[in-house]
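Human:
I keep going back and forth on a fold encoding question. Comparing notes only helps if you start from a blank page. Show me how you would write down a chain together with its backbone fold. Write it directly below this note and I will take it from there.

Assistant:
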Amino acid sequence: MGKSEIREKINNSYLRRALKNFAAAYPVARAKALEGIDFEGLRSRISESKRGVLRRLPELVAEFTRNAEKAGATVHFCRTRDDANRTIHRIMQEQGATFLVKSKAMTSEEIELNHYLEKQGVRCLETDLGEWIIQLAGERPSHMVLPAIHKNKEEVAELFSKATGKELPADIPTLVKAAREALRSGFLTGQVGLSGGNVAIAGNGAIGIMTNEGNARLVTTIPRTHIALIGVEKIVPDLAAALDVMEILPKNATGQKITSYASFIKGPTGGEGRALHIVLLDNGRMELALDPLFSEALTCVRCGACANVCPIYEIVGGHVFGHIYVGGIGLVITPFLHGFDKAEDILKLCIGCRKCNEVCASKINIEGLIVDLRDRIRKPTGQKFLFGTFMKNRKLFHGALRAAYLAQKPFQGEGGRIRHLPLVLNSDVGGKSLPPIAEKPYRDLVKEGSSRSPLPDPRSREKVLFFTGCLADFVFPEICRDAQESLELLGYQVSFPQNQLCCGIPARYSGEMEVARDMARLNIDVLLAEGADYIVTICPTCTVSLKHDFLKLLEGEPVYHAKAVKLAEKVFNYSELAAKRLGTGDRGPGTRGSGMVNGTPHAARETITYHDACHLRRGCGVYEEPRRVLRELAGVEIREMTDCDKCCGFGGSYSFKFPEISAEVLKNKKENIKESGVTTVAVDCPGCKMQIEGGLETDGSSIRVEHSATLVARRLRR
């Protein structure tokens, strides 16, 4: 995966349009399909059931085998991809068959079955329309459910014309008709049929298959021999568990309430002389099921929803964002099924927005597993020095940032903003300008006393420690000032611990977990030493780190883990802490509250839009509080933009490592902001402010990007 390949996909106008259209239509269709369904309850049952399967997988494999063979099937347990390929070829040889008709089976892509059999003189015909298209193109699927989503009708017409020997127009009904006619003879003359399987029921030995085209029913019934190639993780204990999976699959995969065809097959179909061979594929799954950290990846039901909502997949597609299996879960299972060497580059492509976690049918912590995998497969680099020596040394790190204030001057343009970086870093800033490092960081302003509120509150106040984060401290000290002042005006006593370090997220996301652990211990000691009531952050990434990541990093250290638990209870994002002054009334995003705010009627209030930071919305589950704070404390109205919680493309260092991808993600966000028709967009993340503000400024837009703390402080001062 190189820059040229990324650039090629970005410049593929059809691919970009197709993926963008699907990304826009999918959430709407999915929401409609899930109406009346308790999605959280359903996916919780699936997760619990499938995790239970993994704990006794060998036992359930044996139970399924016993019951399937009792029903007349022959079950083959294959440890490796080579075992599976040889087994399927042997079955073909025993039948004297040289023609295999297939319905869609990602497991066959995983073991590269077609390539293997064709070398043995066996013809393979894909009968799923999308799979047939990519077979003719000599490609692999671009999506687990929609394999040919990257192809346009002109390309398909060219492929079908070559396959049929007829010149076919780029007309979809004509192409579908041509496919039916071409594939029909395959159904009738295929000697052996092969399918995958969505579920395999241990309790009765049946397999369940779902399709939209009906080709699986033809493949599994017309040929006298049917081979079902199924990964062992598809085993479920009983019919109830199978129905849960089949309930969620169409809704989560394509936004359909049901698929066109759902079949349960138990034993050979069609009477005497028929044979059913079930090939249970291990290929690393049994070992992965024993892994305490990564086994949950096997609970995946292969719906592909993680790709459907991924902002990176939307930009580059599955041929870049995946190996055989694509999307977020594809990144996780690739090293275990295909080797860690196949995963190293694609793991870097995840921006960490956690949207995949939100829609996963079995509640897999996909983003978390990707981060943990970076640690497992990382290679020695200069990052070890950067994080381990440089960033852990507070005086050295902060001294370098102060020096950078002078070093940046040759790269500053009009207004002080930076439009390019030194080549040693990266000359491309992703289609945006960057704010300069401040002359004085917030920590220096605190020492000078110039950051204090001019309106001290005489009341007895709760003590708050302010954890600013590196970006806000050295680039946006004015946001830090606004946050402190507004919290003091709300009745809190705020102080800044000078010994605080980076939260450790950059080290953790780069796979340097030991460095991240060291930073966690140091920060815990600093933040707990002062006995504060709360610890507040204005950066959601820091919030996630202090509140959640420290717990995970230190779970093997009883003393520090206990301290991390104590710390987590005190950590709040700015909007959460400000909202505590509003009481506990349940007011959703559409609630206007009272007719007056600080004496100002609604008609006189500014209308803004709001961008949800990924780590705040999905990392912390904070969604309502910022909107309440903006309405009731900042005195503004909110006009929700389209995809308000979709990633802006920042992702910390991601926007510098992959500037072209970041710029395309940002482009979508800017379009939605501009379409809202407002003059101000509020954010709760300094990184999001830097990304969006830089993009809008480069476009010549006058739309302002303000942190919620700034808007609240501005109002409270008045």
About this structure: The chain has three domains: 50-287, 402-581, 586-717.
